[in-house]
Each structure stands twice: as C-alpha cells, then as structure tokens.
Amino acid sequence: MFKRILALTIKEFIAILKNRKSRMVLILPPVAQIIVFGYAATFDLNHVGIGIYNEDTGIVSRDIIARFKGSKTFKIVKYISDDTQVAPLINLQKAIAVLHFHRNFSKEINTGRSADLQVILDGRNSNTALIALNYIQTIIADFNRQWSIEKQDMPPPAQLKVRSWFNRMLDSHWFFIPGIVALLTIVVTLEVTALSVAKEREAGTFDQLLVTPMTPFEILVGKSLPGMIIGTLEGTFIILVTVFWFDIPLRGNLLALYVGLFTFLLSAIGIGLMISSISVTQQQGLMGAFMFLVPAVVLSGFATPIANMPVLVQKLTLLNPMRYFLIIVRSVFLQGASFGLLWSQYVPMAVIGIISLAIAGSLFRKRLY
C-alpha cells in the first residue's frame, strides 16, 4: 500500500513541476503577494471593547467612565476589581484596551493637580490600538476642556499614560504580516489540490486509476501528500520571510505553530479535494477554489474584524478553518502562546479536515465504482 501511495505522490509532484504554469503558481504569487501585503495593505476598525479598572471612589472617575459608557465607539466589556484580571482580558482578546484609574485620581484632580489615567492597549492589532487610543484621547481632551471651563484650572486634570502590550511601537505590520502566512498557504494549497483530480480527468489519465489496484483511500492519501508537503514548504518560506525580512518577532512555541499549520493544511486539502472530485475540468476546479477562497478570507478576520460582523455571519465563520489558524499564527508570533492557549483552535480545524476528507473519499469512491 505504501509503495502505491508513494508512487502516486511522486507522479503528482512530477505533474506539478513539469507544468510551467504550475511552477509559476507555486513561486511567483506568494513572493509578489507577501511584498504587496507587507508594504501596502492596511485596514480599519470601528468597534472597540474596553475594560474599566477603577480603584478610585470619587466622582471624577465616574464622570469619565460615564463618557466612555455613553460613547457609540466603545463598549465596556468588563469592570475589573484587581490587577490579576487585566492580563486575561487582554490576552484572550476580550478587550482592546483597559482604563486604569488609581485610588487618588479624583482627589488629585479636585485639589488642582493633574492625575494620571493609565491606558493598557493590546498592541497585537496595532491599527485597532491606535484608533482606540485616538478615541480615548478625544474623550479625555473633551473632559479636560469642560473641566477647565467649569473649574478654571490651568493644567489639564487628566493625563494619559499609555502602555502597549505585545507590540510596543504599535507597528501595523506586526499584526498584518503574520496573517499572510495563513492567506498564502491556503491559496497555494487550494490551487494544488483543487486541480489534482480535475487535471487527471481533463488529460484522460483519471480512467487509468480505475484499472490500478489502488483503493480510494490510497488515492486520497496520494493526492493529499503533495498538497501537504507544498503547503508546509510555502508556509515555512513565508514564516522565514516574516521573521528575517520584516523583523516580526516569533515569541511563541515553534512546534505549536507547526501543529496549527498541519491541521490547517489538513482542512484546506480536504476542501480542495472535495472541489476537485466534483470538477470535470481544471477551469471548474479553479472556479470552485475561487468561490471558496474569497468568502473564506473575508470571514476569517484577516482584514475585517469578526466582532464587527452580524451575529449570523459570526456563526458562519466557525466553519472557516482560516479563522482558527489566524488566531494561532498571530498568538504565537506576538503573544508567545503555547499549546495550552491554542488547543481550542486546533480541534475545529482537525474536525473540518477529517469531515472534508471523508466527503472527498466518498466522492472518489462513487467515481471509481
């Protein structure tokens, strides 16, 4: 069995590498896209969740909190009571920022002095953090202006002290470029696998599989291995470019990243083989891959935050493997996440991969028999 699978795998590699167009697809698009996305792409956000950590019992802090609560830009997701609750709120991405009022905040302002208001930002999504910081500064500036008019105080009563976690300089590339690992990997893997069977049918060689002793399972494995190997190589290349060319820090466990890459490729290959098994021509295979790829990217959180989507659409994103791998790759790169934080992302991708491969195997069986 293993010799037959190996022979089919080698045949797939030869077919891919002998075709000039296939070679160009494997090399040029990833290089071009990582350059374009790395230097030119940007995105925006209009919904910000924040946490409030108020150690002050005075009226001034409550006044400022009321301004945030009444703002359409912000949503207060949690009121924090001690220091230990700050990190989980940021680490689990439940809030983009935490406002910390120290215990003498109102007292210092009421005595005519300036008081520090600490803002803790999640720097992993630097673009979002910068926008949130601008909104926060606008609200504080409005409070200062109104306070100065009412109290006739010269110095601004509240001064922001900003700390950005995970991305100290709030460089947007630190958030965006790791996501390209997921984008380019799924593009290349889908193109390879979605054309594998359709190419055989179009060339007339698919019928030759009918007279071989290979079982549908062996054919499925033989068709999957090239996509898995090529996807791993492409992913590794993009990771290396991300770290050594763009200087994005890789803070987490490399094994945790590659386990995520493997399960992501498993799901991508399963979907690609499903598309290929029902496609008669290569054009149909490409169209099927394109029809899946566009909504997969849109619904992944790559450019549009999932939290901004309607509830029904957010539920649909649970069927998208790219959604989970984006969380994994960004968490490993910027947060230094390990298996303990990421296992809930591995499982859905593995389930999607197993189900899609099972469906692809069933479709192969119907074609063979």
Estimate nothing, just give the exact number of structural domains: 2
Let me know the number of strands: 5
Using the CA coordinates, give the radius of gyration.
26 Å
Low-confidence stretches: 40-45
Strand content: 5-15%
The shape, in one word, is: elongated
User: Which structural class is indicated by helix and strand composition?
Assistant: alpha/beta
CA(first)-CA(last) distance = 19 Å
Instruction: Report helical residue fraction.
Output: 55-70%
Order of helices and strands: HHEHEHEHEHEHHHHHHHH
The strand line-up of the biggest sheet is 2-1-3-4-5
The largest pleated sheet is described as: 5 strands, mixed
Mean pLDDT: 79
- Helix count, DSSP H or I runs of 4 or more residues: 14
Q: Could you please describe the fold and organization of this structure?
A:
The protein has two domains: 2-40 and 172-368, no CATH class; 48-165, abc type-2 transporter like fold, CATH 3.40.1710. Helix content is 65%, strand content 9%. The chain has 14 helices and five strands. The chain has helices at residues 2-18, 20-40, 59-70, 86-91, 105-110, 126-151, 172-194, 196-203, 216-244, 254-277, 282-298, 311-316, 321-335, 339-368, and strands at 48-54, 74-80, 97-101, 115-122, 158-165. A five-stranded mixed β-sheet has the order 2-1-3-4-5. It starts with a helix and ends with a helix. The relative contact order is 0.12. Mean pLDDT is 79; it is low at 40-45.
